[in-house]
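Review form for a predicted model. The reviewer records the input and the model, then writes brief findings.
Reviewer: anonymous (R2)
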Amino acid sequence: MNIGKNIYRAFEIVNKTHENVAKLIEYSKVLTEETEEFEIMSPKFLRYKSDTDYWGWNINQLFLLFQDTKDRKLKNGWRNGPIYVLEIVLYSDAYEEPMIELAKFEYENIRDFSPGVSPASYWHFTEPLYDVEYDELEDEILVAEMPEEVSRKHWGVNRIVCKVCPLVDINRENTYEMIFGTFQKLKNI
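Model under review:
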């Protein structure tokens, strides 16, 4: 097989995957508007991107942030409650296939947050998700209390509750249940 053709086909697959992820992101936004249960807090997805680091040329982890519409809106634009994180992991040393991580980030004082969030703020979510030890609860739900140094470095996050599932398990028929149904379960933990 020709190496050049293999590279070309690999990029075709990556581009098709990014196209499908874009559809998932847009459909998730539509679902938040239709159901009015969650509000999207990151109009653009959060990600690592760099012009000088080749690893940053390939966006392989994307984050969308949501909050429960039942939580009171604050003057800074955030809501007085946890941030629910949808992370789409296309490639990571942590997994052998594309996954989604659905997490609830609980904070010490969200009132002190600056308004809005930059796409480059991804590291405030990726580092706490991957740099701590989790305890496993029932139904494959993981929970971690944040060490003080992690909390101090990442906006005062105190606790994370999350669930991981294969990205390929999500389709148009089950998107709501897989993402927002999981957020509803995490809300009570």
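Findings: The radius of gyration is 17 Å.
Further findings: Residues 3-35 form the longest helix (33 residues).
Recommendation: see findings above.
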